[in-house]
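Hey,
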Amino acid sequence: MKIRVMASHGPPGRGVIPALVYRAEAYDEADRFRECKWGCSHSHDSVEHAFNCGMDWLDDQRADPASETA
């Protein structure tokens, strides 16, 4: 499994354009379409926080291979 970070527009704020929010997703390396197998259920304010969230989930999966969801 590999982790990627996806960006999308967040809720409207003070500015004209909403700020970006980030979410971590996991996909199988062998899947040429890179279909999302897991995604964090919350948004992050930075790419780094989203990536770290995904890596924490991935580490948990490696420690407990019987668990497939978070």
